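Write out this protein's structure.
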Amino acid sequence: MLWVKAFHIIFVVSWFAGLFYLPRIYVNLAMAETDAECARLLLMAGKLYRFMTPLGVLAVAFGTWLWLGFGFSGGWLHAKLVLVLLLVAYHLYCGKLLKAFASGKNSKNHVWYRWFNEFPVLLLAAIVILVVVKPF
């Protein structure tokens, strides 16, 4: 089970790297002034989204394996699962935003994306505290 735990941590860290960077690309896309700049940033965002999606799937899969293998229980785990579901929703919403940029229908400015970029940081902090401290 230590291998499963190690792979879970590796994929979680990798997935979060993408979740931290993709909205930063959106900030730059919202500020882009030329078609060439938009095209380059859209290419980067699309490649990153396609790369990070399997990382998220593997993070969730290994986490589920740990849960089923160890039989964790307690309020902290239920709270963590809710936060993970929010994280999956955030990831999917990032994909929706990417489609809006690609179709020229983005309606949000760079300031909104700067704030949007902070959400996974808050989720990460809460999830780590729940897993390590197990406050309830």
